[in-house]
Design goal:
The complex is a heterodimer.
Chain A (H helix, E strand, L loop, with lengths): L5 H10 L3 H20 L6 H13 L8 H8 L4 H14 L7 H12 L4 H14 L2 H15 L4 H17 L4 H12 L4 H17 L1 H7 L3 H13 L7 E2 L2 E2 L1 H15 L3 H17 L5 H16 L4 H16 L3 H14 L4 H5 L2 H7 L5 H14 L5 H14 L2 H18 L3 H15 L5 H12 L5 H14 L4 H13 L1 H7 L12 H13 L5 H15 L6 H14 L5 H15 L1 H7 L10 H7 L16 H13 L7 H13 L23 H4 L8 H4 L32 E6 L2 E9 L6 E10 L5 E9 L5 E4 L12 E9 L8 E9 L2 E9 L11 H10 L11 E2 L2
Helix pairs in contact in A: 1-2, 2-3, 3-5, 4-5, 5-7, 6-7, 6-8, 7-9, 8-9, 9-10, 9-11, 10-11, 11-12, 11-14, 13-14, 13-15, 14-15, 14-16, 15-16, 15-17, 16-17, 16-18, 17-18, 18-21, 20-21, 22-23, 22-24, 23-24, 24-26, 25-27, 26-27, 26-28, 27-30, 29-30, 30-31, 30-32, 31-32
Chain B lengths: L1 E8 L4 E6 L5 H17 L7 E4 L2 E8 L2 E7 L5 H19 L4 H6 L1 H11 E2 L2 E2 L4 H8 L8 H12 L5 H11 L1
Antiparallel strand pairs in B: 1-2, 1-5, 3-4, 4-5, 6-7
The chains are: A alpha+beta, B alpha+beta.
Chain lengths: 860, 172
């Protein structure tokens, strides 16, 4: 059925039992309205539009009524016009093409003889005018600003506001009229013209200056509002026209900003408003609030400022939550200007964290972040952590971030910092940003003295809760990385240290894999962690076996990333010697000054400066003693890690290659002893005890054709011994070409000096990141006594840099598998071109022997 | 400036929506949906301010209706509450003890009242009586009898529709 009028329709819709019924009815009615529009029935139009607007409010399409609204506006009847304009305001906005058609109707009605018709047009314009329409009708609006009718003037003022919001450059257009309007006696006109002027001042600083002259006038207006007694027309619970007062205060704020004189003029009235306004009702507080904002923004004298902040303090103690809300909000602005004033209210602010109202909690939280400093970081972070326990989930992510940042900035010590992070990982582990997690891991990696503590705390936390993702990730990483510390020291957290077995660790990590909380990321972490644990020497073979079984399971995982990891780890297990290196502890992610300092103890430094005279054997003993003995409690692995960093650590270890050694060193375990300027012009072979009878230039006939003999004519064709142990000797012969500076061809020669052959020789080399290395395969992995095997390498290094190599050698000799690692930087500087002076110096000192820490892994 | 004013019933039905900033229909319905949910979920005696995306939302409940205003950051929250109250007062005087049903059946009038209190997102008139006088529009030039019936009608809307129809017939 079709409803004959709006009321019937509304009743019909309200009578619908189900949503489906309602929708059907609306569709039916909408279709009927559409048909009626097509029939051009002007009598039904009013009714139809009214129904359509109701349907529109219920959420149905009503765009087809736009043109009908325009037709309705053209009607001479006021009620039609009103409904037509209402329809235009509801159905049209700036983005619609049809709006341009409205311009003409508006123009006509702005010139209408009836003020209500003008009022309708102005109201419509003020609510929906577009930029184009603003330009078209700006003149009409300006004319109406001078109307004798207050009803029209006040609406025109807000239309002018719309115009300058859409087209800011038209602001000048209205300044003259706006000045007149400020002297208006009518409150409505004053209200809207002050709104207009406020917007103008915001748009253009020049206009703002122009209106500074109006300050005394505004002050007088405000004063009369404050001092006049009861005026029934504008009274709101005992206060005269709070709307106008607030508007004046806001304009004064803009005019007083950065202007001493204007601020001076308004000081008194602001003080008067601040003291005389009744603060028992919301109205009064709205004025006080605006006054405070104004005082804080202008160049107010100190007395007034203190008064303003005190008002905020009083607000904070108010029982009305709205008042507290605005106080917290405003203190947030004040805190950057005057932290101490806000610090005084710290306890109340912290109390607000426990308020039942989420808006209050949110504001208080924002404010408490801003309050943290060196002095109160412990107290405030403790409060925040306490709040984190009960905080709404939506706050948690931001809270963990803010707490972490605060801890990073103000932490009194590292232990506290780590404790704080541990705490929020436990409380809100599912709400931690990735950056925060990695910052924590960085912190742990850089704090070797607390690694045992952190690892055991995380172990305990993880044992009790594996549902917090970030805690799981952090704990898995740390346990995987520092499992040796845990296994050696046990749980150091509690009074009586408790032993942890490798089985416990792996059980725990495996339980994560099987838990319902596991996701792909945690599984990846766990796989890496257990692989790392299993490579540690103190882990029993049973557990190692278990890990490899587990990895084998995941080698068929449907998740590609996991599968790839598992497959890689499984094959890594079969590469005994590579595995150790790959699964070593990670170097701390980013080098910091303090860390470099502790590391450089064992750094191989090629120095040409005078060093204690020591014979090579003696110094080698020193070296071994210094290198493999645990230094200040770190396991040898630590040294290794340091070495790795030396080579791969990038730019920060550059001093290692520069000629003068930067730091003074002790003589005993000083590696420099090695490089001590031995007697000049001694070939390296001669310096080394007789175990290597072969001289560097001996090129046996057994060489493979792919390794051409070095050209004897080359002037710099010297070979350097890189490795000599267990009757195996490796020498390196660098060769440069002038055509390609920076490229060094290196020929490695392998010889056995004893009677037994070295079999399964694997020779690997690595260069610093700044250099590139290419290697050809070895001529023969088995070295028989008397034969020489070779391998060619090519290093491309930046011109002028020194070539440094890390060599890893493994071989089987006499039934024993030997695996060694050697750092070699014994080539003379200048190989890569330039540095002629350096080359000279080096040639004077002749050949250098290089060669450093050796980590012997002798499987018995 | 006020960005939008919504009247939402306790059942979550929209009774009036006025937009002072340009937004597409999708954004509008999203706001209505989200705010309906959030405002209705508020407990009594909490503050009247909500934070919704970048706008502050001031709301106040009158009987079964929530008056909801989205305002800009620079606005005075406490004064916005007064503006809402002012609108309610004018509605109350205009309809005489206004109820939600008045606003449903005379939604155009509710808009007309709003147009005399707030336009372009700013308060227009601080005097209740002036606003009230202006809402009624020009003096009618139709026979007084007609207006009598219209007025009666507005009071009797709860009664049976037919009864009003009969009244109209009887007078003509």
């Amino acid at each position: 059925m079709v409803y004959h009028n709006l009321k019937a329709l509304i009743k019909g819709i309200r009578a619908c039992k189900t949503v489906a019924d309602e929708r059907a009815l609306i569709q039916q009615e909408s279709a009927a309205i559409r048909t009626s529009f097509k029939e051009e029935d002007s009598f039904a139009r009013h009714n139809n539009i009214a129904k359509l607007l109701y349907i529109h409010m219920l959420g149905s399409a009503a765009h087809f009524g736009q043109i009908e609204c325009l037709k309705l506006v053209a009607s001479p009847r006021f009620s039609d016009k009103r409904l037509g304009y209402l329809g235009i305001m509801l159905l049209l906005d700036e983005s619609q093409e049809t709006l341009t058609l409205v311009t003409n109707s508006l123009k006509n009605d702005m010139n209408h003889s009836n003020m209500y018709a003008v009022g309708l047009a102005l109201c419509t314009f003020a609510n929906i005018a577009s930029e184009e329409m603003s330009r078209d009708l700006a003149n009409e609006i300006e004319k109406l600003l001078g109307s004798s009718n207050t009803y029209i003037r006040k609406k025109a003022a807000l239309c002018a506001l719309r115009v300058i919001k859409k087209v800011p450059e038209l602001a000048d257009h209205f300044t003259a009229k706006a000045k007149n309007l400020l002297t208006d006696r009518n409150h409505g006109v004053l209200l809207s013209s002050i709104t207009l002027v406020t917007e103008m001042c915001q748009i253009d600083a020049a206009i703002c200056d122009e209106f500074r002259n109006a300050v005394p006038l505004l002050v007088r207006n405000l004063k009369s509002l404050v001092t006049t007694g009861y005026s029934p027309e504008h009274d709101v619970s005992g206060i005269t026209d709070p709307f106008l007062q607030v508007k004046i205060l806001r304009l004064l704020r803009l005019l007083g900003q950065g202007d001493e004189k204007a601020s001076e003029t308004m000081n008194d009235i602001l003080a008067q408003v601040a003291t005389n306004t009744d603060s028992t009702k919301n109205v009064g507080n709205s004025i006080l609030y605006e006054t405070v904002l104004t005082v804080l923004d202008i160049e107010a004298d100190t007395g007034l400022r203190v008064m303003a902040i005190n008002i905020l303090g009083k607000f904070l103690g108010n029982r009305d939550n709205n008042i507290r809300y605005v106080a917290l909000n405003t203190l947030n602005k004040v805190v950057s200007i005057d932290t101490n004033a806000v610090q005084r209210h710290r306890n109340i602010i912290l109390d607000c964290l426990r308020d039942g109202d989420i808006s209050i909690r949110r504001r208080a939280l924002e404010l408490s972040y801003a309050l943290i400093n060196e002095q109160n970081v412990r107290v405030l972070v403790r409060e925040l952590l306490a709040f984190l326990e009960i905080a709404d989930d939506e706050f948690k992510l931001n809270m963990t971030t803010q707490i972490s940042l605060a801890a990073e900035r103000f932490a009194p010590n590292k232990r506290w910092h780590i404790d704080t992070v541990l705490r929020f990982l436990r409380l809100a582990g599912n709400f931690v940003r990735e950056e925060i997690l990695s910052a924590f891991i960085r912190l742990v990696a850089h704090t070797p003295e607390l690694q045992a503590y952190t690892a055991s705390r995380l172990y305990v936390a993880l044992t009790s809760d594996i549902s917090q993702e970030s805690l799981t990730l952090a704990a898995t990483w740390v346990i995987g990385e520092y499992s040796d510390v845990l296994l050696e020291g046990g749980i150091v957290d509690e009074d009586s240290p408790k032993q942890v077995t490798d089985k416990d660790l792996i059980d725990l990590l495996v339980s994560i894999l099987d838990s319902p909380y596991a996701n792909q990321l945690t599984r990846q972490f766990v796989l890496t962690a257990i692989t790392k644990i299993s490579s540690r020497p103190m882990v029993s073979s049973v557990q190692q076996e278990r890990v490899s079984e587990l990895l084998a399971q995941y080698a068929t995982s449907p998740e590609l990333e996991l599968q790839q990891r598992a497959v890689e780890f499984v094959s890594l297990f079969n590469l005994g010697e590579v595995k150790e290196g790959v699964l070593e502890k990670m170097p701390p992610p980013e080098l910091k000054a303090t860390v470099i300092g502790t590391v450089s103890e064992q750094k191989p430094v090629g120095s040409t400066k005078s060093a204690p005279d020591q014979d090579l054997i003696g110094s080698e003993n020193d070296l071994i003693g210094g290198g493999s003995a645990p230094v200040n409690g770190h396991a040898p692995a630590q040294n290794n890690e340091d070495l790795l960093r030396d080579i791969f650590g990038g730019g920060s270890d550059q001093p290692a290659t520069s000629a003068p050694a930067p730091a003074p060193r002790s003589t005993v375990d000083d590696i420099m002893g090695l490089f001590g300027p031995g007697p000049t012009a001694t070939p390296p072979a001669a310096a080394i005890p007789p175990s290597n009878p072969m001289s560097a230039f001996n090129i046996p006939a057994t060489q493979t054709p792919q390794a051409p003999p070095p050209q004897p004519a080359a002037p710099r064709l010297t070979s350097y011994t890189a490795y000599e142990k267990n009757e195996l000797k490796i020498t390196l012969t660098p060769q440069t070409s002038a055509a390609q500076p920076g490229t060094v061809m290196i020929l490695a020669r392998f010889q056995v000096s004893g009677s037994s052959a070295a079999t399964g020789v694997s020779f690997q080399a690595a260069v610093p990141k700044s250099q590139q290395l290419q290697m050809l395969p070895m001529s023969n992995p088995d070295i028989n006594p008397g034969s020489v095997e070779t391998q060619r390498m090519r290093v491309v290094a930046p011109v002028g840099s020194a070539v440094r190599l890390r060599l890893r050698i493994s071989y089987t000799m006499g039934g024993q598998t030997v695996q060694d690692q050697v750092d070699f930087s014994g080539f003379p500087p200048g190989l890569t071109g330039a540095h002629s002076l350096g080359v000279l110096v080096i040639f004077i000192f002749n050949v250098l022997l290089a060669f450093i820490i050796i980590q012997v892994f002798l499987a018995v | 400036m006020i960005r939008y004013i919504l009247l939402i019933s306790r059942q979550g039905k929209l009774r009036l929506a006025k937009w002072f900033t340009t937004m597409n229909a999708k954004a509008k319905s999203r706001i209505i949906q989200d705010l309906t949910q959030q405002v209705l979920a508020r407990r009594p005696r909490t503050c009247n301010v909500l934070e919704y995306k970048d706008t502050r939302v001031i709301y106040r409940r009158y009987a079964s209706l929530f008056f909801v205003c989205g305002v800009e950051a620079a606005d005075n929250e406490l004064l916005t509450l007064e503006i809402i109250h002012r609108y309610v007062e004018v509605l109350d005087r205009y309809f005489g003890n206004v109820t939600e049903l008045d606003l449903i059946f005379n939604f155009q009038k509710a808009y007309a009242v709003l147009d005399e209190v707030v336009i372009a997102g700013e308060i227009l008139e601080s005097s209740k009586s002036t606003a009230l006088r202006l809402v009624s529009g020009p003096r009618p030039s139709l026979p007084w009898l007609y207006y009598l019936i219209i007025d009666t009608e507005s009071q009797l809307w709860e009664e049976n529709e037919n009864m009003t129809q009969e009244l109209v017939k009887a007078f003509f």
